[in-house]
Amino acid sequence: MKRSEVNEIIRESDKFIRSFGYVMPPFAYWSPEELKARTASDSKAILQARLGWDITDYGQGKFDELGLFLFTTRNGNQEDLKKGGGMLYAEKIMISREKQLSPMHRHIVKAEDIINRGGGTLVLELFNSNPDGSVDEKTDVEVATDGRIVRQKAGGLLKLQPGESVTLLPGNWHAFWGEGGDVLIGEVSTVNDDLTDNIFREPIGRFSSIDEDEAPLHLLVSDYDKWLA
Fold it and tell me: Which residues sit opposite 29 in a β-bridge?
């Protein structure tokens, strides 16, 4: 992706998020220079927890068709998770554009509530896992949705209207997209590790390669190792 495209997606996404009354945390608007200065002094947790902007085309170069906007607002740590106490949770705000696919994947550790916060319909395609972790195309899928248990055939489509949510457990294969408009999505989950805990059905990447055709408006989480080291 070109940096100019990333910058424009940030501007558009911030406007869309604000239209629903959701306000981003102050660090979202720090310049790259301020973020670098602050993470070297009083804001190390941003870097350590990998909080911030996250825009991906999964390395395929067609963001409008295959991509996702995310912003991680809070995240615990793996050490707390291992000992079973402390900050064991994470939260994201995301945007799935109309007909923009977030491809089929599962998590090893993370359980997550996916919440339609507003906009169009959020459509999820769901499968279970086989014992070897592959997609189970035969077994019915059971998931919790706002206090109810929903059972559907493998590969069935679950449609969430604004205000509705679904709980996905480790091993639940899922892909999703917006229908009838762009969708503002909330995610509340176990500690998030996007470096190791995303298993995709197809051999694609989690992060985008950036062509630096202009200066970054704000750094992406995937920029941190290069820009903040």
Answer: none
Phi, psi of 34 (to 5 degrees): -70, -40
Q: Please provide residue 185's backbone torsions phi and psi, each rounded to the nearest 5 degrees.
A: -120, 135
Rounded to two decimals, the pTM is 0.95
The count of other CB atoms within 10 Å of the CB of residue 22 is: 15
106: exposed, middle or buried (Cβ count in 10 Å: 0-12, 13-18, 19+): buried
Number of domains in the chain: 1
* Host domain of residue 88: 3-227
What is the DSSP-derived secondary structure letter of residue 101?
B
Nearest CA among 165, 169, 164 for reference residue 142? 169
pLDDT computed for residue 39 by the predictor: 93
The DSSP H or E segment spanning 56 is strand 52-56
And the tokens for 148? 């109810």
Q: Specify the amino acid at residue 75.
A: N
pLDDT of 229 above 80: no
Residue 31's CATH number: 2.60.120.10
